[in-house]
Amino acid sequence: MIGYASLLSVPLQQLVPRGTRVTVFQNIFWVFLVLGTLVGIVVIGYMFWNAYRYRDGNGKDYDDGDLPQLGEIPKDGGKGRKLFLSFGLSAIIVISLIVWTYGTLLFVEGQDTGQPSSDVGVENKDPVVVDTTGYRFNWSFEYENGKETNGRLVVPEGRVVQLRVTSDDVFHNLGIPKYRVKTDAIPGETTRSWFVAEDPGRYRIICYELCGQGHSGMIAYIHVVPQEEYEQFINNESSLSEISASDDESGRLAAAR
Amino acid sequence: MSDNDQPRTATDGGTADAEASAEVTEELPAPGVGETEDHEEHALPSLGSVKRWFVTTNHKDVGILYIVTSLFFLVFGGTLALLMRIQLWQPRAAAGGPLDALAYNQAVSAHGLIMVFWFISPFAFGLANYLVPLQIGAKDLSFPRLNAVSYWLYLFSGLLFGISFFQGGTFAGGWTMYAPLNVPKYMPTAIGSTMAVLALALFVASVTVSSVNFLTTMYRMRAEGLKMRKLPVFSSSILLTVWMMLFAFAALLAALLILTSDHVLGTQYFLSPEGGSLLWTHLFWFFGHPEVYIVFFPALGVMAEVFQTFTGRRLVGRKWFIASMVLVALQSFIVWMHHMFLTAINLEVKTLFMATTIGISLPFDLMVFSLIYTMIKGRIRFTTPFLFSFGALVLFIIGGITGVFLGAVVLDYEMRGTYWVVAHFHYVMVGGATALFGGLYYWYPKMTGKMYDQLLGKVHFVMYFVGFNLLYFPMFVVWETPRRVFNYNPAFTPWHQAATIGGFLLGASFLVMFYNLFVSLRTGEDVGDNPWAYATSAEWAVSSPPPLENFPGIPSYRGGTLSFLDDVVPASEVETDGGQEAIEADGGEVVEPDGVYATHDHGHDSHASIWPFGISLGMFLTFLGIAGLRPPDSTDLVAPGAADPVLVGVGGVGLVVLGVSLFAMAREPFYTSEAPIAERWPYAHVEKVKLGVWMFLGSDVILFGAFIGSYVFMRFNAGWVEGWHVFIENPIPGLMNTYLLLTSSFSVVLAMVAARKRNTPGVIASLLTTFMLGVGFLINKYIEWSHLFHEGHTPSAGIEESTFFLTTGLHALHVISGLVILLYLAWRAWGGAYLGEDEPIEYFGLYWHFVDIVWLFLFPLFYIL
Ligand code: HEM
Ligand SMILES: [Cu+2]
Ligand SMILES: [Cu+2]
Asked: Is some CB atom of chain B closer than 8 A to the CB atom of A78?
């Protein structure tokens, strides 16, 4: 990953958002949202303004002696210099935005296996690897020491969690909105993803690909706990019920499981 | 047909004098008043009779049938959407709400499928059917009966889909139909879901026929002087749409045939852990992304037409606008993997597809600006069609901007499967539909000769636009709601309630439209040829509605503007005009008609046939039957449930109906003529049937390509050599078959030679030889297959068997169809046909050689490698 990073010049490096997936997503999303809204307002505003300005009966007549005639062979209306100018501008905005996010994509793609980069910002560089399998209609998790849980994923706080995701039956998609992580669970394939477990507590794991009747309710939970608790748990020294999951996600649907 | 015996020689480049638009109309030849008299002679019942609508092959009638039917499906799909919106009024656990979990999944899936396949495209094609021939100056489509076949197949495919609801429930796996949820093992609604898949396949048949028809028409029947790049924008957009349809839908057909076979023959493609899921995503999105543009292009075309008319300006940068569409149409086939960023594809591929995706978004920027700049210095009249087109552009801009978010892979990672996507594609697709409604308001006076109430039109627009944004904008706000889920975060409830209210407002707005358009049929004010000032395209130069054969003479743009040549101008006189050189120098080509006659001595084109209806009914019943089949060795693991004998019986009846209708249609005298003078570049020397056959084979290439690609993909995923059990030990039957087919290609050529030599026995003998060789091929295959079956190699035995039997089986089906045609040809030859004119045999030969060539690929792939 150092290889990729050094490709980008130094000032660019600072421009490219890095950090946890949450940070990265927030940064990029906001830039897109602000710019998108701006462009939208300008373009749509300009449309309305033109529509108003050139409304029929506005007292002006721009008749240049070349009105469209019934039965004419279709022709170009006007030169289109302005057209290329604005096209060029919009192309620059779009391309630079995407290229900018590409730097982050390289960063994000680099963290799902091996040692995470220091840019992720965690102290303990050892990743926690969890093998995850979707099945109708829940998730099972296998930890590095072979312990398995169903419907509950327990991870230590402040570490990079690397997921290996597959499916036992149909196409699912595992997502943890809290940590902005999402990846497909495909039978016969294994996909990889990663996130940093911050803020101890209990959050939802949701299936994002229609997988049958139980899809709407295919919700599991992730428990983020302190390191010692995590170790006790995977070494079978404590059970799920003993895990301090008091800090429940606010406002989540109580009806679900 | 009075004063237009001579082509009007207008000053070049459009008249320079500024006439008020109203006068322009008078400048043009008034359509012959007596034109409508001779309709009844064509055995076409009058507009008021029910029978007419079953037998008509006229493009305008078919267009209206399409439009009415598609609006019916709009209501159907819309009702399902409203049901979903009620379910989403508040977050619900599985049992709560009006729909149970399975019903909700069915509603989501059926809504998506109906809106995308049975509403929006056919709605656009209703307009296209009506208008493209008018705009390009053709009397009808190249193959009017096939056009009727397209319509009836469309209607029956929709019916089949409707029936699937009553066969234990329809398909419930989403409109993207991801594998392996789409196979019976995971579908609690087995027969119903098979039927829904077959309904789609039938729909694809309709689309393919109609693509071939439109392409042939647009390349062979343009008015003189109307070069390909001079088509009115709506027609250009349709041309590009049908090109995309021809290839994209072939890929979908492959996916659907494989899926059907997994359902009814027990093949193992999509259940296979060796990449079955990914195979589906590739096949589906290879179709699915072009489909996005297939849906949107006609809307762009409408917007451009309506903007031009109601701003009174020509499209700014028209040639760049069209160039952009061409670019998008080409690129649309290389972006499909952006739907798969979260699958296991690697970084390089992601990068590539990210790049192509931005690439494809840029031409749209240009088109949007081009539309906006067209308003400048205009005389904008805020009529109903303009409001809808203007609104559509606003919605499309929002849809486009929110799409850029998804193009950034890092954001797509989080937005996949959420309401961001739902909101985005509704802004784009329903935005497109908005323009199409504008198109309906724009051309309604042309189609009916009546004007609707403008005030009600505007009321519709306001309700529509407010409802739309109230429905979809909140989805951006609560974008974190997972898609296809009714159990969402309670904090989002108010926004979803706003959306539901918006949905009902949107739905109600259509009541206004239906009322307005329906009442205006009777009470609307009569309009003349052209109610809209500054409209330029040819449809406005004829009466409303246009006469049966559209024009009062042969349309021509030779003088730079539209004029109608009188039918009986002798060829020589037409050709001496100096205008032709200019046209040829420009890359166009004006060609003499197939015969020598430039006079149009018949004037009795046929416009009625019942057989398109018969053929489609036969196909419909046959497909019902296929849906009832289950694999012979079906276990509950593969496909629960048994075959349904009633359905299968119905299918048998269907085959008979189909056979009889096909035969009857082939025998029926049906006369169509091509205009003696027309623009036909670049296919001037390819006769229309031949061109049609070529186009069809083009789509067939993609079909086989997708099958072969699927085999290679599965085998590659399994491990080409070590992971793949090659069960065919004996290549000899395959080799023999190769020789049989090659020889049979040769004997077709002999038949052509004999026909040219007017040697009837020779023709018959060669055709029968071909037939026998084909039969030999099938017998050989039968023996080979029964051996394999005996050894336990059935289609459901494994992915190796599945790919072998299905791919070669598809080829065998092509051989069988060929044999049926051969029998018919031989029978006709016996009756003395084809002497001196070998074209029909030649066209059959094209097909037959193609089938042979396919075998030359299959043989080494399956028997040797
Ligand atoms: C031209 C009209 C429309 C088109 C082309 C269209 C298309 C689609 C498609 C393709 C889907 C995805 C289905 C799936 O995920 O399998 C969908 C979903 C949906 N549509 Fe529409 N739609 C249209 C109009 C409407 C209207 C008018 C409403 C509301 C009244 C609506 C509400 C919904 C809802 C609630 C969903 C489900 C979203 C989800 O849970 O993923 N749609 N639509
Ligand atoms: Cu699911
Ligand atoms: Cu796409």
From this structure: yes
Q: Is the pLDDT at B588 greater than 60, yes or no?
A: no
Asked if residues B497 and B89 have their Cβ atoms less than 8 Å apart, the reply is: yes
- Write the residue with the smallest CA distance to atom 43 of ligand 1: B112
The answer to whether B404 contacts A94, with C-beta atoms less than 8 Å apart, is: yes
- Is the distance from CB of B506 to CB of B468 less than 8 angstroms? yes
DSSP string, B96-135: -SSS-HHHHHHHHHHHHHIIIIIIIHHHHHHHHHHHHHHH
The pLDDT of B540-546, averaged and rounded, is 95
Summarize pLDDT for A32-79 with one digit per residue, the tens: 999 999 999 999 999 999 999 999 988 777 777 788 999 999 998 876
DSSP bridge partners of A192 = A164
Q: Does the Cβ of B484 fall within 6 Å of ligand 1?
A: yes
CA-wise closest residue to B162 among B205, B130, B118, B132? B118
Atom of ligand 1 nearest to the CA of B119: 1
- Quote ipTM for the complex: 0.92
Q: Across the interface, which of A44, A51, A66 has its CB nearest the CB of B380?
A: A51
Q: Judge if the beta carbon of residue B78 lies within 6 A of ligand 1.
A: yes
Q: Hey, whose CA ends up nearest to atom 1 of ligand 1? A: B430
**Which of B187, B414, B493, B530 to mutate against chain A (most A CBs within 10 Å)?**
B414
Find the Cα–Cα–Cα–Cα dihedral B593, B597, B599, B604, rounded to 10°.
-80
Classify domain B725-865 by CATH number. Answer: 1.20.120.80
- Structural domain spans, chain B: 725-865
Which residues are CB-contacts of B550 (< 8 A; sequence separation ≥ 6)? B133, B134, B138, B139, B140, B542
Cβ count within 10 A of residue B720? 11
- What confidence category does residue B173 fall into, taking pLDDT thresholds of 50, 70 and 90? very high
Query: Looking at the complex, does the CB of residue A186 fall below 8 Å from at least one CB of chain B?
Result: yes
CA distance A197 to A210: 26
Is there an atom of ligand 1 within 6 Å of B99 CB?
Answer: no
Q: How confident is the model at residue B635 (pLDDT cuts 50, 70, 90)?
A: low
Global pTM value: 0.91
Distance of CA B298 to the CA centre of its chain: 12
